[in-house]
Protein backbone atom coordinates (compact mmCIF):
# COMPACT_ATOMS: atom_id res chain seq x y z
CA UNK A 1 0.00 0.00 0.00
CA UNK A 2 1.30 3.44 -0.92
CA UNK A 3 1.20 6.27 1.60
CA UNK A 4 1.12 10.03 1.10
CA UNK A 5 2.32 12.90 3.29
CA UNK A 6 0.03 15.53 4.76
CA UNK A 7 1.28 18.00 2.13
CA UNK A 8 0.42 15.65 -0.74
CA UNK A 9 -3.03 14.89 0.67
CA UNK A 10 -3.69 18.60 1.32
CA UNK A 11 -2.94 19.39 -2.32
CA UNK A 12 -5.11 16.49 -3.50
CA UNK A 13 -8.10 17.50 -1.33
CA UNK A 14 -7.73 21.29 -1.64
CA UNK A 15 -7.24 21.98 2.08
CA UNK A 16 -4.27 23.07 4.19
CA UNK A 17 -1.66 20.61 5.48
CA UNK A 18 -2.50 21.79 9.01
CA UNK A 19 -6.16 20.80 8.52
CA UNK A 20 -5.06 17.34 7.30
CA UNK A 21 -2.96 16.96 10.46
CA UNK A 22 -5.94 17.94 12.62
CA UNK A 23 -8.15 15.39 10.84
CA UNK A 24 -5.50 12.70 11.43
CA UNK A 25 -5.13 13.67 15.08
CA UNK A 26 -8.91 13.40 15.58
CA UNK A 27 -9.02 9.92 13.94
CA UNK A 28 -11.13 11.24 11.05
CA UNK A 29 -8.96 9.63 8.32
CA UNK A 30 -9.05 5.82 8.42
CA UNK A 31 -5.64 4.20 8.07
CA UNK A 32 -3.62 7.33 8.90
CA UNK A 33 -0.55 6.46 10.95
CA UNK A 34 2.13 8.34 12.82
CA UNK A 35 5.65 7.92 11.38
CA UNK A 36 7.87 9.68 13.89
CA UNK A 37 6.59 13.24 14.05
CA UNK A 38 4.76 13.05 10.70
CA UNK A 39 1.50 11.55 9.52
CA UNK A 40 1.30 9.10 6.63
CA UNK A 41 -2.05 8.62 4.93
CA UNK A 42 -3.10 5.78 2.61
CA UNK A 43 -3.26 6.86 -1.02
CA UNK A 44 -6.85 5.61 -1.35
CA UNK A 45 -8.14 7.46 1.76
CA UNK A 46 -11.18 9.64 1.11
CA UNK A 47 -11.66 13.17 2.39
CA UNK A 48 -13.95 13.10 5.45
CA UNK A 49 -17.12 15.17 5.43
CA UNK A 50 -17.02 18.54 7.13
CA UNK A 51 -18.39 17.87 10.62
CA UNK A 52 -18.44 21.58 11.47
CA UNK A 53 -21.68 21.97 9.47
CA UNK A 54 -24.31 19.37 10.35
CA UNK A 55 -26.69 19.94 7.44
CA UNK A 56 -23.94 20.35 4.87
CA UNK A 57 -25.21 23.87 4.10
CA UNK A 58 -24.53 27.23 5.63
CA UNK A 59 -27.67 28.66 7.24
CA UNK A 60 -26.85 32.35 6.94
CA UNK A 61 -25.36 33.57 3.69
CA UNK A 62 -23.67 36.93 3.35
CA UNK A 63 -24.75 39.26 0.56
CA UNK A 64 -22.19 41.02 -1.58
CA UNK A 65 -22.38 44.05 0.75
CA UNK A 66 -21.50 41.98 3.83
CA UNK A 67 -25.02 41.97 5.29
CA UNK A 68 -26.78 38.79 6.32
CA UNK A 69 -29.53 37.68 3.97
Automatic annotation (TrEMBL):
Could you tell me which residues belong to the region Disordered?
A: 45-69
| Record's keyword terms, sorted | DNA-binding
Q: Which domain of life is it from?
A: Bacteria
Query: What one GO molecular function would you report for this record?
Result: DNA binding
Q: What is this protein called?
A: DNA-binding protein
Q: Which organism is it from?
A: Roseburia intestinalis
**Lineage in the entry?**
Bacteria, Bacillati, Bacillota, Clostridia, Lachnospirales
